[in-house]
Amino acid sequence: MAPSAIADHQEETFSGPKLGLTLPQNAVERLKGSGIDPDSYPTRPQKPDFLDEVFAVRNKHRDHVDPGTRASPGKRALLDACSSVTDLTAHIGTELLGVQIANLTPQQLDDLGLLIAERSVVFLRDQKLAPQDQRRIGEHFGEVEVHPQVPQVPGVPGVTVMWPDLQGRERIQAGNTPGFRNPGGASGWHTDLVHERQPAGVTHLHNDTIPTTGGDTLWSSGYSAYEKLSPDFRKFLDGKTAIYRSAHQYHVRGKEHEGPKFLEREHPLVRVHPATGWKSLWVNRAMTVRIVGLDKRESDVILNYLYDVYERNVDIQVRFKWSAGASALWDNRITQHIASWDYEGNEPRHGTRVTALGEKPFFDSKAPTRREALGIESQAEILEKKREGYSLNQ
User: pTM score, two decimals?
Assistant: First the structure.
């Protein structure tokens, strides 16, 4: 039985305001068709003020069994139901046609979990998806995260509102106006919720409204980023940990005069996916602070290089052009992503997002890389490892 949405979160307390914005018509129709009143949209949580409040949220062990471990042989329950299965690049991204995600059986969702774990991000177009179904699907992948900071769909906690116009208005109110030289939206490479005790697993973003041109999202593969490193550099990084911080800042109780601070937690720099068993480089420029055990200058040099590996190697990235009604499901344990704000807010973009939390990150020195596991290493890669005395048991 899949776990239900977690309960230890700040309760929803009030709705709106929309800050003078008009909800896009596609979104209005989707909400009304799901029995949700657009006039009460969105609902906002009572934001926590203090670091100890946020640290206490979900600060306990939760069992997590990845659905990909229950997949059918060859993922046939899912793939045989599709009219088309297309890998968009060699290393990351697959698009499925001919299925409605809201109608998938539990076994098909398990297969989808493994496909996401293998291909990092999976896309489905023309989806008829109520926010309630989006949350139900999220619960199949793990415990649904209820964010203590961001707007939610009324009555469906854990379904986050992704409305760049609204976030833009809030930035303007805070004195930070978005524009061409200061883009809005999620316009920096990042991975979600890395500061959690058990960080994000699968995220499902569904967009009901998209601009005519632009607004694409890009993902980069952590499996491939790790494989881009030399065998000796991989050995240096294996087993090391780093400090990861929250996206938002909070006051330390009794020390408000010191100003707000980030919540920080320590996790492996290289982690292993529980369904595939493959190693992935797990860093991101926005929220990885430092490598434990190194001087700051040493850590900064290494981390900046690792960020570049993720961000600059276009052969390990996929770029998705949205269409209204499309869904993207990606695994935060093995990816970074970034949204393009090239449309500059001139047209509406609106959707909803659900994130399921995963396991506590772990490292296994005996785990293979993706290319090793699939047997797709080049002869040059194999020879390089032999020259450097590389072994899976090291």
Answer: 0.92
